[in-house]
Write a structure and sequence with these properties.
This protein is an alpha/beta fold. The chain is 33% helix and 18% strand. The protein has a 3-stranded parallel sheet, covered by helices on one side. It has a two-stranded antiparallel ribbon with strand order 4-5. Pfam families: CobU (PF02283).
């Protein structure tokens, strides 16, 4: 995967970990070539509003398009399958994650799903 997204070539990489801290906006990251967002489902939990997230995704899409060779990589765990949670807050978060993933996939030029270490290109 690292080679596919050009993050092995020694360029400046900014890594956002949604399990640890909230994601930051694209302001002030002019020197980076690659920005990776890990733990998207965890980052969505405190703000489960798909409209707000779509605005955020579009801001990073504009950042990526503003200079050649920029890449934004989004990594999230699929929490939308399996047993539906009884807790209304958990259901709201789960639904928001699914809607955010759909909106993000519509904006991305490539979408891959990893399952058991095997990559499947969806888009």
């Amino acid at each position: 995967m690292r080679e596919r997204y050009g993050i092995n070539d020694g360029v400046h990489i900014v890594w956002h970990n949604g399990y640890v801290e909230p994601y930051r906006p694209p302001d002030g990251i002019e020197t980076a070539k690659t920005v990776v967002f890990d733990g998207l489902e965890a980052a969505i939990r405190p703000r489960p509003d798909p409209d707000e997230w779509e605005s955020y995704f579009r801001a990073w899409q504009r950042w990526e398009a503003a200079a050649p060779n920029r890449t934004v990589v989004w990594i999230g765990t699929d929490v939308t399958q399996g047993v539906v949670p009884v807790d209304p807050q958990e259901r709201r978060w789960r639904d928001a994650v699914g809607m955010c993933y759909q909106r993000l996939a519509s904006l991305c030029c490539r979408v891959d799903r990893l399952w058991c270490g095997l990559a499947e290109q969806l888009k």
